[in-house]
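Fig. S4 source data, part A: sequence.
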Amino acid sequence: MTQNKALSLLSLAARGRNLVSGEYSVENAVKAGKAFLVVVGTDASNNTKKMFTNMCDFYEVPLFQFGTRETLGHAIGKEFRASLAVTDEGLAKAIIKQLETHEE
């Protein structure tokens, strides 16, 4: 259930234009200090995971590996998305809460 809740919150963020997707946009959002949460698909390439892990550590942005490229893309109405960044702090906190319960 929690997984669906996290995905519907991501979908809400996308509809409200509080989410960017795709490696380039996510990287820009993190570096500009606009990202409050980064989500990378569990099936993203190791290179992508490593790049975002290092970047998020450096800029102190929470990072979660969650869902697949397909489920993430589907949640935001796109084809495949390996990386997403939530740019609204309140929504990011709500999604983090869901993802943390999902991990337990």
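Fig. S4 source data, part B ends here. The beta strands are 19-21, 37-40, 63-65, 83-86.
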